[in-house]
Amino acid sequence: MCLLDRRPELVERWLARQSAAVRRPSVTSELAASWLAASPFKRSRSPSRPRESREWRRRLGLLDEGELFMELIRDVSNELDIDVLCHKILVNVGLLTRADRGSLFLARGHILIAKLFDVTVETELEEAVKKAREEEIKIPFGVGVAGVVAQSKAVINIRDAYTDPRFNSEIDMRTGYKTNTILCGPISNYEGEVIGVAQIINKTDGTKEFTERDVEVFQRYLTFCGIGIQNAQLFEMSVQEFKRNQILLNLARSIFEEQSNLERLVTKIMTEARDLLKCESCAVFLLDTHCCEAILLESLVVKTTLSICERKPLCRRESNNVNVDEILSPKEVSNFKFTTVFELRSASQKADVYNPTQSDLGKSKLAQIAKYVATTGQILNIGDVSSWMNEDVTGKGDSVVARCILCMPIINGQKQVIGVAQLINKETGQPFTENDVSIFEAFAIFCGLGIHNTQMYENACKLMAKQKVALECLSYHATASIDDTTKLIKDNIPSAEKYNLYSFKFIDFDLNDEDTCKATIRMFLQCSLVEQFHIPYDVLCRWVLSVKKNYRPVKYHNWRHALNVAQTMFAMLKTGKMERFMTDLEILGLLVACLCHDLDHRGTNNAFQTKTESPLAILYTTSTMEHHHFDQCVMILNSEGNNIFQALSPDDYRYVMKVVEQSILSTDLAMYFKKKNSFMELIENGEFDFQSEGKKELLCGMMMTACDVGAIAKPWEVQHKVAKLVADEFFDQGDLEKLQLNTQPIAMMDRERKDELPQMQVGFIDVICLPLYKVLSETFPWIKPLYEGTLENRKHWQDLAEKVEMGLTWIDHDTIEKPIEEFTGDEDAKEIEFTVTTLNCEKKAGDGEGTGVSTRRANGTTMGRFASLRKNRALGKSVRTRISRSLYAKSSSEKKAVKILLRSLKKRTKHNQSSSRKQKANYAHSSDIRRPHLSQKLSNYC
Fold first, then answer.
1. Where does Zn(2+) 2 bind (predicted)?
2. Residue 735 CB burial class (10 angstroms; 0-12, 13-18, ≥19)
3. How many angstroms separate the CA atoms of 662 and 596, rounded?
């Protein structure tokens, strides 16, 4: 009985240690690094050299059988190099069983591959490894002695090899060595799976067969060797993964360090791939993804909602599964055209770069293979090119014949093929392995990211250059002409009193375009800004004309609106005495912000930009139009001869630009609602010191909003006309939403609901205008006219809202004088007209003049405020109440007229119920018929 049988506790302890080692997930990077840094001699230490073998065998001869067995187990248990381990196993098995030589096969799938072949006790490691790689013996499971052992997991002991049908004598015939006896056993892991087969042949002690004792020792030793081999394989995988990660990290670092030049980037990637995979040549083919600049620009502003078509998933295809004709005569694909080819040879450090023509690509077999990979999106691994294609294949201008090729598509982050990477010929002369494919696939991913980023960087540089040219052209065309500037410089600038600039009731209707520019310059002169900040007068004139030129001719948000906002700010500063809270630099910034706050307005709001995903909405996600207005302001200031801030110090320049930016952004009502509560809290707490930065910003923001909506406080005839301009611009946006977005616009932008606008104006005043003007007038009493004017206009809008409720229309005419329909029947019509006139509220002589509410007829009689009725609307409650009261308070003739009116209205109500659908269908058409009349009247004010 051997030592293992007498002392089983030793085996149990050793197995516990080995099992713990097997179950560990991976080795640490420090262990892998130290292993990689070790000398080849240390990693190849094995009792293979004659002197070492004799000394080692002498020392082993002093041990008994049990101690010898345990010593050999310890010798292999700590070895992590798979080559050294397999060599030790064969040498030790030879010592234990006195075998002449042995071979060790490792399983890969269902194939045994010879790791070491025909190793004797005296065979050195390097010689054994080299011989095995040259032989490259592969045995399928179930074939030959080793294959049968792998499949059956049983030991085979053959006493006479040549009488056994499973023995293949081909190797004996080739080497001249005669095989007599064979002992072959499986090597299993701890899960019982066969991971290899060990085979020893011929005894050296003169016996003719392996004894039962040899078989028992052989089996027990291989049991421990299985655990060692699995540990070594796991370690080898960990080391390979560590090396791969290090290489990929270095590659990623190189890629993201070099993104300004595509040629240098691709050269660096190809050099890394060539050196890692030990190949003779490397090539990269880049596809033309943007065949023209229009596609490039479209791709940069493409909607994010568009989905990108994904290609087939990448898969490996061996050469014998691909028809040569399928590659050399592919279907023509117009979208795939190589524009640039990079080729790197083994002895070169610089890639050859050329732009191939279609004829060059048609002649090159390598290019045709690359095109096939690009069109299919598949990985192509060709192990023997010449036999597969029946001809020699060479690269462009290269005498190197391609023996094996690994070709892989390069994809970007959107799963689009942007190129093809190609490796040619392993330096070892062997085909590319699955491990090479796996590493190269990772290279291709990084290569795709790097190339895509570099291409985008180059495209961005080109677009920046284009943008610079476009800005130069834009600044030239957007700047006022020399003739207009010269004329304005020479013109006399009237006084502020002549233009009524100090009044909150300023009206621009009577001013021509030249007067609007002069009034603007007068505000700068009146605030002493020209002298204070040394603004050249010619620059100021050119800047004012340029700002005016950059407003689009939309119906409301145009140059005249900017002038009115600036004038309201001027009146607040001077008449409202708000200038005592501002520095001269802040006054300059506020006036500039008012004049520029709607530059290049398109007649549509921020919500419309977002819904349509316009380029502006892509540039600015919040306060879209306001950011654009400020950018236009900066563009004009940076244009030659337009910088009115040119004499300011750097600190003053930064501060005034900050004031301008914050002031323009505060005109976004969304910003107003965010800041309103903070401002209200300051006022409620009795705060009157607005000199700190945050409080000054709040005050300037409230003042900008007050000026932006200042038209609500103008005299009624002005407010009425301005409201129509605003409504008409809103209606145009509503029409665009219906046409482009196929959505129903909100009420204030729906042309079919225009008669609801008086009530919406009341809501606008109550929610935004009155609260703001009230708190400002209570804190700064000199701007109370804004609050009072708004209150007065609210009364007018409320009155119109009531009239709309009873059937009147307000939007179609400057004055409410024409009914939608004419009453039939002369006698009834006269009495109804008389009755409605009588029902009007008692008014003093002269009331309503100039308001557009009460007008005189041609015959001199006065038309009351209830002079127009709509047939499709019922009388409001208040009107019905008045009519009912008149039945008891008026004379008999008036009572009769009222009864006629009620009877007529009752008939019309029944008629409306039967024809409402038809009327709604024709409503849009009737609106379009009336619209030219409105546009013609509004053209006088644009």
1. 598
2. middle
3. 12
Q: CB–CB of 232/115 below 8 Å?
A: no
Six-digit token string for 416: 């689009």
The pairing of strands 316-318 and 379-382 is: parallel
Compute the distance between CA of residue 685 and CA of residue 65 in angstroms, rounded to an integer. Answer: 100
The DSSP output letter for 416 is: -
Q: Dump strand ranges (E) for 777-880.
A: 855-856, 862-863
Q: Is 391 helix (H, G, I), strand (E, B) or coil?
A: coil
- Nearest-10 crossing angle of helices 584-596, 559-574: 160
Span 908-917, pLDDT tens digits: 544 544 444 4
pLDDT at 68: 60
Residue numbers in the known binding site are: 557-561, 597-598, 708, 761
Residues comprising the chain, all counted? 942
Question: Is the CA virtual torsion 456, 459, 465, 468 positive or negative?
Answer: negative
Name the CA dihedral angle for 701, 706, 710, 714, rounded to a multiple of 10 degrees. -160
At 859, is the secondary structure helix, strand, or coil? Answer: coil
**Helices and strands (DSSP H and E) totals, the chain:** 38, 15
Helix segments in 45-189, DSSP class H: 50-61, 65-77, 82-97, 125-135, 144-152, 170-175
Annotated binding residues for AMP: 557-561, 598, 708, 761
Residue 360's Cβ-side half-sphere holds a number of Cα atoms within 13 Å equal to 12
In this structure, which long-range contacts are made by residues 133-137, counting pairs with CB atoms below 8 Å and at least 24 apart in sequence?
Answer: 137/105, 137/113
DSSP 892-913: HHHHHHHHHHHHHHHHHHHHHH
Look at residue 286 and give its three-state secondary structure: strand
Closest among 593, 572, 574, 587 to 783, alpha carbons compared: 572
CA distances for 450 relative to 256, 295, 687, 764, angstroms? 7, 21, 58, 54
- For residue 659, give the amino acid letter: V
Q: Which residues are annotated as a binding site for Zn(2+)?
A: 561, 597-598, 708
Q: Which amino acid is at 166?
A: R
Q: Which amino acid is at 564?
A: N
Residue 809 has which token pair?
Answer: 């229309």
Other Cβ atoms less than 10 A from the Cβ of 18: the count is 18
Beta pairing class for 138-140 and 156-158: unpaired
* Residue given tokens 């700590």 in the structure block: 78
Q: How far apart are CA 39 and CA 559, in angstroms?
A: 82
Place of tokens 């050296």: 204
Name residues of the chain where pLDDT drops below 50: 1-4, 15, 18-51, 62-63, 291-320, 332-334, 397-398, 812-891, 895, 898, 906, 909-910, 912-942
Calculated CA dihedral for residues 652, 653, 658, 660, nearest 10 degrees: 110
H/E segment holding residue 831: helix 826-839
β-sheet bridge partners, residue 111: 108, 140
Residue-wise pLDDT for 537-590, tens only, equals: 999 999 999 999 999 999 999 999 999 999 999 999 999 999 999 999 999 999
pTM for the full model? Answer: 0.54
Q: How far is 408 from 442, CA to CA, in rounded Å?
A: 11
What is the per-residue pLDDT for 208? Answer: 82
DSSP track, 690-742: --SHHHHHHHHHHHHHHHHTGGGGS-HHHHHHHHHHHHHHHHHHHHHIIIII-
Cβ–Cβ contacts within 10 Å for residue 462, how many? 12
Q: Where in the sequence numbering do the catalytic residues fall?
A: 557
Residue 192: left if φ>0, alpha if ψ -120 to 50, beta else—which one?
A: left
CB of 520 within 8 A of CB of 566? yes
Closest listed residue to residue 150, CA positions, set 166, 163, 165, 174: 166
Percent helix, strand, coil in the chain (nearest 5)? 60, 10, 30
Residue type, 242: F
What distance in Å separates the CA atoms of residue 713 and residue 617, rounded to the nearest whole number? 32
